[in-house]
Amino acid sequence: MSGRQYEERRLEFRILGPTELLVDGVPVPLTAPKLRTVLVALLLSGGRLVSDASLSELLWGRLPPATMAAQLYTYISRLRRSCEPGLDVLRGLRGYRLDIGTAGFDLHLFQRAAERGRQSLRDGQYATAAGQLASALALWRGPALADVTESLTVAELPRLEESRLSVQEDRIEADLAVGRHARVLTELVALVAEHPVRESLRGQLMTALYRVGRPADALRVYEQGRRLLKGELGVDPGAVLRDIHRAVLLENLPEPLSPAPVMVQASPAEPPRPAGDAVVTDNLWGGLVPAMLPMDVGDFTGRTDELAETLATLRGQRGRRRGVLLTGAAGAGKSALAVHAGYACRSDFSQGQLYIDLREQDGGPKEPMEVLGGFLRALLPGRHELPTTLDERVQLYRSLLAQRRVLVVLDNASADWQVRPLLPSGDSSHAVVTSRCPMPSLEGIHAVRVGRLNRPAALALLAGVVGGSRVADEPGPAGRVVELCDGLPLALRVCAERLRTHPCWRVADLVDRLACEEGRLDLLCEGSLDVRARLRTSVTELEPPSRDAFWALSRLGAVPFAAAEAAAHLCVPQRRAQVLLDTLVESWLLEAAPTDGGGPLYRFPPLVGLLVRERPDQ
Fold first, then answer.
1. Angle between the 489-501 and 455-466 helix axes, to the nearest 10 degrees?
2. Does domain 179-258 have CATH number 2.10.109.10?
3. Which numeric CATH code is attached to 542-614?
4. Which residue, among 22, 15, 17, has the nearest Cα to 37 in the 3D structure?
5. Which of 6, 59, 94, 334 could hold 326 in an S-S bridge, CB 3.0 to 4.6 Å?
6. Using CB atoms within 10 A of its CB, is residue 412 exposed (0-12), middle (13-18) or buried (19+)?
7. Mean pLDDT of all residues in the chain?
8. For residue 273, what pLDDT band results from cuts at 50, 70 and 90?
9. Cα separation values, 608 from 373, 386, 588, Å
């Protein structure tokens, strides 16, 4: 009986993300991967007959069970029963076909919205095209075909991903045409990293970089692509990419074709009107999916295990977790790891990536009320009034994230009170938090320790900035740089930048400069990369009792000491001294080494030791 006769039952099929079948808006449980595989295979056939043999290979590969026909019939029957009357699965000659009639299918909606956007693009209606294509991409709720059999994923996913990427390219083309080059720059950096030999994306990135005043970076992107194409494929860049390269060199790359008008809205009751020279708008986020992540580190090195652990948690492979907490010492690269992980799983959170640095310019903590205001304005474009209390903002924020797949990156958190209101509460959105504190009170958060880089990873970081030959030519001095920087990524990056900006220096020359303890922290400062400042912030963020204990213990110098010695030096009972020592260890300002007999011995990490020797009067 045809499902089209039952208009009161509204069916919706969704495969652009987790596979879903909804009847009258209510999800139908599809718990078995093979059941989802049968449904998706029939949907992707476009109403054509799918043979029993094809379904069998998608379900069991080339070695189907003897009961293949019976099991296949069982899966079809379960689909029919799940939403009967309404699902029209028809039996043909040695196969099945699915007639969805007027039911909703997100792939069809995506294709129709994409075609409308492309027609607008062909007609030169660039702002309209950008909005239509963005609407098409918003239908993707995550990676497609992740919950079906591997055979179906291998057969169909490349086609779906190519469709998605092609629409994304067209949307970026429309955005560039109306002058939104700064807006798409971060997105393009991630896409080129994911698809390094796709010349169209590389050309768009070069265009965006040129238009934001970074022609040298645009030329560098071209050169990287040229080497990659020549080395991996044995070909030169195509004519289009070469033309963009030539235009950047000659500084005559065309300007945007049709700059989008800025719309001003004086009040909610007054319709928008084009602005003259004014740039005033109440709807800056209109039509945009939040993509707030800072630019990824192009030469990100190491952290293989930490990255894999973080991504597995965010993708739900470690149980029901709300997110990940990256803890480590100042300068350990927690922020870089968080951002890199965010880009690595962008397709899993296609409905937005929110980011905030929770530290004020003066080092103080930002208030959750203020942070939520920024997040809500991005999630609710055009809304003029936001809740006026923290509780109401938290409830609205969590309700919004419960309906979307959004990644929230909370960088440089100082305490759990700052983080708790900003954590998503549903199963679809997740958070990455970076902090120097362990924060064990955050429920459902998986902690990942970010320690020092091991020697191979540290040497790779140096080589990535200054060149592999320069490090390979002086292996001994390069290893000594790693030791003097205590494997701390921030310190190593400063050293690498000094070598890069002083090509006449040998690595051994840098070692000679670092060997002087009195000036080492001065040398480990390059612009905003300041090891001393990061270490001082770690100390100033301590609660007063722990901060006082830190400076008092600094007078013990570089000699390891036991808890009893610390208690005597602090003039407190040993039990109280142990609490203070544990706090300093958790804050990465002390190290505890086990001993054969009694309790552990404590010492200052090498670079922290340099800091305390500078300030013995504290």
1. 30
2. no
3. 1.10.10.10
4. 15
5. 334
6. buried
7. 84
8. very low
9. 37, 44, 9
Band of residue 133 on the pLDDT scale cut at 50, 70, 90: very high
Count, residues in the chain: 618
**Residue 265 confidence (pLDDT):** 35
Residue 199 in tokens: 């010349």
Return the HEC string of 494-522. Answer: HHHHHHHHCCCCCHHHHHHHHCCHHHHHH
Name the CA radius of gyration of the chain, rounded.
29
> What pLDDT is attached to residue 276?
35
Tell me, which fold does domain 304-450 have in CATH? Rossmann fold (3.40.50)
Q: Kindly report the pTM of this predicted structure.
A: 0.55
Residue type, 201: L
CB 342 within 8 A of CB 409: yes
- Are 144 and 15 contacting, i.e. CB atoms less than 8 angstroms apart? yes
User: Residue-wise over 471-481: b if at least 16 C-beta within 10 A, else e?
Assistant: beebeebbbbb
DSSP assignment, residue 89?
Answer: E
Crossing angle, helix 606-614 and helix 531-540, to 10 degrees? 80
**HSE (CB half, 13 Å, CA atoms) of 421?**
21
From 116, 160, 110, select the one nearest 137 (Cα to Cα).
110
Question: What CATH code is assigned to 1-156?
Answer: 1.10.10.10
Q: Is 45 helix (H, G, I), strand (E, B) or coil?
A: coil
Q: Are 570 and 536 in contact (CB under 8 A)?
A: no
Q: Which of 546, 126, 489 is nearest to 302 (CA)?
A: 489
What is d(CA 613, CA 618) in angstroms, rounded to the nearest whole number?
Answer: 10
The verdict on whether omega for the bond into residue 387 sits within 30 degrees of 0, i.e. cis, is: no
What SS3 state is found at 485? Answer: coil
The reply to whether 542-614 shares the fold of 1-156 is yes
Q: Which long-range contacts link 575-580 to residues 24+ away (Cβ below 8 Å)?
A: 577/549, 580/545, 580/546, 580/549
Q: Is 150 left (phi over 0), alpha (psi -120 to 50) or beta?
A: alpha
pLDDT digits (tens, 9 = 90+) for 522-539: 888 887 788 888 888 888
Euclidean distance between CA atoms 20 and 12, whole angstroms: 8
Could you give the maximum distance between any two Cα atoms of the chain, in Å?
Answer: 90
- Nearest to residue 453, comparing CAs of 497, 494, 486? 486
Query: Are the CB atoms for 153 and 145 separated by under 8 Å?
Result: yes
Structural domain boundaries in the chain:
1-156, 179-258, 304-450, 455-533, 542-614
Residue from 42, 50, 12 nearest 28 by CA: 12
Residue 602 corresponds to which tokens in the numbers above? Answer: 């404590």
Buried b or exposed e, range 300-336, using 16+ CB within 10 angstroms: bbbbeebbebbbebbeeeeeebbbbbbbbbbbbbbbb
DSSP string, 328-393: E-TTSSHHHHHHHHHHHTGGGGTT-EEEEE-B-TTSPBPPHHHHHHHHHHHHSTT-----SSHHHH
Q: How far is CA 42 from the centre of its chain?
A: 34
User: Are 343 and 193 within 8 A, CB to CB?
Assistant: yes
